[in-house]
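Sequence in, structure out. Go.
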Amino acid sequence: MSHDFFKGIKQWEFSYEDLSIKLPVFYYDTTSLQAVYTAATHQVKQRLPLDKMHPIELYPGRCLVAFTAFEYRRSDIDPYNEFSIAFLVTFGRPQVPLVTPVAQMLRRQLSAYVWKLPVTTEIARVGGVEMYGYPKFLAEIDFLKENEQVTCRLAEKGEAILALKGKVLPTRRQKISRIQTFSVIDDIPLVANVVINPLEMAISSDRRAASLEIGTHHPICSELRALGLSKKPLQYQYSPLNQAILFAGRNLIDK
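Output:
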């Protein structure tokens, strides 16, 4: 696999307690599944930490939530898995229903507030919490591929939270995309960029291509049901092979 994507990017090494982390973080070999659902805007607003964060709406009253499973087979912080639940948002400026999400998708530049971000290793958890303010916690995140379907199951201490299932689709190389993530540390908003190189990816608007099964007893399950999620996804992305760079978090004034 070519590493040309990472050429010309300067990395710095940081130490935290007994951990050593390079920034930006390079992800050399990754699989991801993503399903985007609509949710009740008023419910999502209640879960955003700052009034300046505005849910991006497909149409008035219905905003967008992205569920994304990651299997990082090779990275600067060793192999681990991660599951992101993120609300697509604008920060400090109003969004325009339908126009804003379509414009972001066409530019391949999404912006999101990361609401939940469980991971499978301590170095991934500590680095994400202390350096980015991401809401990370340790969990079990397992991938299973069978019969032209990939399933990612998320649980904490054996208690099921959700399962994201998606079809295995024919893929091709896609253009490089960027995700701007917002987080908060000590009531101070931070922003970080993730640049993704989709070496193999399929994007589908078939609402049968993916499904989300929510568990029963874990506290996150009731929170998810309260969002008023759509029964089927608006869009599904299957990427068996991609690369990514997670840049350092920074203050919003540092454009």
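Check: The chain has four helices and 16 strands. The CA atoms of residues 69 and 178 lie 17 Å apart.
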